[in-house]
Amino acid sequence: MSATTLTISGELYETIRRHGERTYPHECCGVLLGRSDDQGNTVESAVEAGNTRTDSAHNRYNIAPQELIRIQRQGRERGLDIVGFYHSHPDHPAQWSKTDFEEAHWIGCSYVITSVEQGTAKVTNSFLLAGTTEEDKRFEDQRVVVGSGVPDAVRC
Amino acid sequence: MKIFIPTPLRAYTGKQDTVEVGGATIHEALGGLTSRYPDLRKHLFTDDGKLRSFVNVYLNDEDIRYLDAKEQTAVSEKDSLSIIPSIAGGC
Ligand SMILES: [Zn+2]
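Predict the joint structure of the above. Result:
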């Protein structure tokens, strides 16, 4: 099977990268709403979330479940699903870490990581959490297609 | 009551994002859900029947782990349950 794709508009792509620059040297995090099919996930909206890990915000992130529930509800009202999440790696490569993998549970969703070096967003990669269970889950590299489309960034 | 299903678990609910169930308590409502969709069970519960550590269940806006009666909390038709796996990580 060929690699799946994460499709995102140029404006939303920039929005999530700028978010990581703004929170540097802390990690940013957020939720991607959109649609998914066999080819991959298409992002229609990026919703910023607060990082609850104020104890270790430079290398950890966590999104409060209440915030996720609210975002999921907003999505449902607009016919959009949660299709992924994004976070930044301040002064670390845009590759998933052991922690990222262990704490990833949304199978079928895209985990987007942006490296932010000295306050500047560098590489943005997407990883699909593939598999069917906690036991066989794995991250697969996903092609990021930055295209056009109607952008819609929601700020919280 | 309504139970909201997160994207990854809709593979086991016939793609539905919302499932309507009966039951007088959270426990009965979740039981109704997993008896209708048995494949869901192992994604929500450990072998000894405890909610998996990364699976959050909210009764309206409250984490059921912090409710006094936990899963035995009474529910009504107007309540909703949200199943929401955790989102975390680092670098
Ligand atoms: Zn990470």
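Residues 41 and 49 of chain B are 9 Å apart (CA to CA).
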